[in-house]
Amino acid sequence: MARRWTNTLTAADVTPKATFMNRRQIMAGLGGMAGLAGFGGLPGPARAETLEPNSWEDVTNYCNYYEFGTGKGDPAQYAGQLTTAPWSVKIDGMVERPGDYDFQQILGEMTLEERIYRFRCVEAWSMVVPWTGFELADLLALAGVKSEAKYVAFETLYRPSEMPGTAYRVLDWPYREGLRLDEAMHPLTLMATGIFGKDLPNQNGAPLRLVVPWKYGFKSIKSIVRITLTDKEPQTSWNMANAREYGFYSNVNPEVSHPRWSQASERRLGGGLFASRQDTLMFNGYGDEVASLYEGMDLAKFF
Ligand SMILES: Nc1nc2c(c(=O)[nH]1)N[C@H]1C(S)=C(S)[C@@H](COP(=O)(O)O)O[C@H]1N2
Ligand SMILES: [Mo]
């Protein structure tokens, strides 16, 4: 197998271990992990309530991945044909060490953690998923972010031969997403490589996808092949498709309605007939951690 890794990095080029450890210890301290052995730092609402994960069946059968069709069951049915090895991620733009980073080699450089996050989709449903992954900040440190970079743009693989849904122009392929650099560097922002302690199933975005727990689900772009550091706000697929309905920030906000539906409450998936509707929390419950990122911004305007 051809290695596409073009850098000659040593551990010393990556975020120093002491820095990792500090952050890990801080997260663990905040998490107060009583009774949740097996899972690493448990940021956000996990420390205030026991988040009971959804079932494997819910998480892997009720998906959004339009490259395989727009039905919630389509990804589970069609994503199996996607080839995910070898896999490389191009990191380019305003970075010190641009290149094609081999996924397996990235994995070897990263500290893997397990975290339970409440995951919120825009169509007023939510799930709780135990993710495995590493902090996006650590991957960005590998490439070395230049000081002029202000945003991070992401792209999903576009491979029509294995992605039947791309025959339909429901979105402008490849699927694109973006974050402001401070959002990308936030310790809650995860590059997920697994769920329930197993590798990510294709329908959930193998081999690596973003998870930004305080934002609506569509920010969590799947099967990433390119990460570009830039000084301009990146274009995003849903904003390109319908700018009135989907903004760049996409923070979970019960006070700002989607033009076609309220965002004030959500249905927790998997609860069957008696699934409780619950009030949606500002920033999906992660406000203590992330509200400061948006201080002074009008969140009705920057939705
Ligand atoms: N490439 C790509 N990424 C994507 C999507 C998609 O259609 N294509 N859908 C998004 C949406 S709308 C949601 S809600 C989440 C769903 O993630 P899940 O299927 O793992 O729950 O993936 C997001 N990432
Ligand atoms: Mo979504």
Structural write-up:
It is a single chain. With 303 residues, the chain is an alpha+beta fold. Helices cover 18% and strands 21% of the residues. The chain contains eight helices and twelve strands. The strands form two sheets. Strands 3, 4, 7, 8, 9, 11 and 12 form a seven-stranded mixed beta sheet that branches. Strands 2-1-10-5-6 form a five-stranded mixed beta sheet. A hairpin with a 5-residue loop joins strand 1 (88-93) and strand 2 (99-102). It is globular and about 50 Å long. The chain starts with 16 loop residues before the first helix and ends in a 13-residue tail after the last helix. Mean pLDDT is 86; it is low at 1-42 and 44-49. Molybdenum atom (MO) binds next to loops.
**In percent, how helical is the residue content?**
10-25%
Secondary-structure class? alpha+beta
CATH homology superfamily name: Oxidoreductase, molybdopterin-binding domain
Name of the CATH first level: Alpha Beta
- How many domains would you count in the coordinates? 1
Specify the number of helices. Answer: 8
Strand % is 15-25%
Number of strands: 12
Shape: globular
Give a list of the ligands: ligand MTE, molybdenum atom
CATH architecture: Alpha-Beta Complex
CATH topology name, in short, is Sulfite Oxidase, Chain A, domain 2
Query: For the residues shown, what is the average pLDDT?
Result: 86
Biggest sheet record: 7 strands, mixed
Distance from first to last alpha carbon: 44 Å
Low-confidence stretches: 1-42, 44-49
Tell me the Rg in angstroms: 18 Å
Enzyme class: oxidoreductase
Family: Belongs to the MsrP family.
Cofactor: Mo-molybdopterin
Pfam families: Oxidored_molyb (PF00174)
